[in-house]
Amino acid sequence: MTAKTHNTIDHVVRSLLCTGCGACAGICRYNAITIRENCRGLLTPVINSKLCIGCGFCFRVCPGQGFDFPAVTKQLFGGYPAHPEIGNFLSIHSGYAVKNEIRKQCQSGGIVSAVLIHALENRIIDGAVVSRWNREDPLNTEVFIARNKDEILSASGSKYSPVPTAQIIGTLKNTPGRFAFVGVSCQVHAIRNAHQMMPELSQKIVFIIGLFCQGTMSHKYLHYALAKAGICAQDVQRFAYRAKEWRGWPGDIRIVGKSGNIEHMPSSDRMCAKPYFTPWRCNLCIDKLNEFADFSVGDCRNPLQYGSKSLKEVNFKGHPGISDIIVRTKAGEGVIKMCLDAGVIELKDSSWQDLLVSAQPSRKKLEFTYFAALARILHIGVPSFNIRYIPKNKILNKKLTRYSSITIVILFHYWLIEIISGTTMYVFAIKSIPIKILAWLNRVREKGLASKNCGPEELIVCRDDEDDIC
Ligand SMILES: Cc1cc2nc3c(=O)[nH]c(=O)nc-3n(C[C@H](O)[C@H](O)[C@H](O)COP(=O)(O)OP(=O)(O)OC[C@H]3O[C@@H](n4cnc5c(N)ncnc54)[C@H](O)[C@@H]3O)c2cc1C
Ligand code: SF4
Ligand code: SF4
Ligand code: SF4
What we know:
Radius of gyration: 21 Å
Helix content: 25-40%
Shape: globular
Bound molecules: flavin-adenine dinucleotide, iron/sulfur cluster
Number of strands: 15
Mean pLDDT: 92
């Protein structure tokens, strides 16, 4: 055991760079790491110094401290991203699961669950790593290997809560078979890091499904939602962030009480409160579209796919949802084609322009510039990706490099959220702010961070060690 190793992994946590992915606990051969919830409602590792031998594996697998975009891009795809905003891809589609009962129960168009069920039933995989609400403890999640259709469907739907999905590498090491893995970008980065360290793992994980991710939320959000709905945590039987029963896609918070009572909270209310519960590390994440998955999936928000010019004009009542799909690798292409040929999923070809309208990936890549600058001023951590993005649009570029006073106030306001989110009265304080005020604050924030203008902008990609290509 060396103090340096402790400092290294502890440093990730102390620098607020931990994403709570769980990979460090999964890779440690000495069971020296436990993942625990901290005062901010986030999952972080705790090291038992008596068991640790200082091998450094936990730090090497950690995606929180950064991820080498150029190196892994080269290794997986052979070169620079074909598209700076989307990453490397072979094709782009919109689509959904053909079986309506799957599509309705799942988050977007049900592509993830439909593909996993087909791959399991056709023995392409022996199991799939998925995440569901814990049956005994319905406000906590559990990561497990699903072996049949019912288990896959028990994990359907997005959990905007801390989920240590990559911890499963500890179990996979000792479990024979071939598996699929489903995770958000930071979890997929952890799996790609683990592939480098344990080549046998890349033989076991035959394909990775990446979920788009703009940010998750702390466990404190659940308590906020329950307080808003007037339900005690002990009385909850089932919780869903985006259930489609009430008003169709995109789905609303649905809380089922133990006595059978059902409460709904509109998705717009969830979005208003989201910034107050989003971990600081998510502000420093540049990979919304899960660029290192075999294929990535998200909600389709392109109004044209719903037959309209604006999402506001679409009547979603009863709509089961549509997914965006980015096929990135040959492995991903093989699985998607197999499901398409079998009639399990329905796909329409889409273009990168359509995807930019739908997913707006540049927003995260550009906002990183702001948050990294603030982190440097405050002497806290900045993850290293060895890559930067700058907008081609000169006006936007100027906005990003010249900080207006409103931008500075907004950035410090994010930092204030981070500081006070660990206090016991935090949930109560946010709950007492009317939704209208939260919505107004969100609009001010968007304006100040120029993120509204960061939609389908073309970006230039720069490697940190090759400034001259910018
Ligand atoms: C934290 C988070 C943030 C997201 N942000 C965006 C976004 O900004 N824009 C967008 O377009 N899409 C986002 N998504 C993806 C979107 O919500 C859907 O998950 C995706 O479109 C797949 O839909 P589906 O119907 O195919 O999935 P389903 O068939 O319902 O399957 C969902 C799968 O997701 C897995 N899963 C659920 N929660 C988690 C989690 N927290 N960590 C790891 N795996 C999980 C489950 O294991 C399940 O297999 C996000 C998802 C998550 C979990
Ligand atoms: S340094 Fe090695 S033994 Fe110690 S916690 Fe990390 S992985 Fe485990
Ligand atoms: S491996 Fe994951 S859980 Fe562990 S310190 Fe890094 S980001 Fe946090
Ligand atoms: S925004 Fe990035 S860091 Fe945050 S949960 Fe999503 S993938 Fe992980």
